[in-house]
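Sample intake sheet
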Amino acid sequence: MTLYMAEVDVIEKTSLSDAVKRLETALGQLETAVQRRLDADRSLNSLQDDLQRMGEDRSQLAASLDESEARASRLEEANKDVSRRLVTAMETIRSVLDTHGG
């Protein structure tokens, strides 16, 4: 009977040792999974921050483009006005020269 108890004791220690190893393995896997999840969350937050900054940059660029287009339109109108005035001035000079024998 003592031999049987010793065998049971060895089996129980082996089973307990195996259970502890399985538990340690499972904990290691859990820690790895948690770390991956934390990394993914940090990456997602970083991407969201980047997306927000890009949205802000886009808004600023759109406003700048609108201002540039408005300025270009004003310059184009001013250019047309100057061209009309030059044509009028040249016609006036031509007229004066023709009138005064120039």
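Comment: The radius of gyration is 43 Å. The first helix runs from residue 2 to 99.
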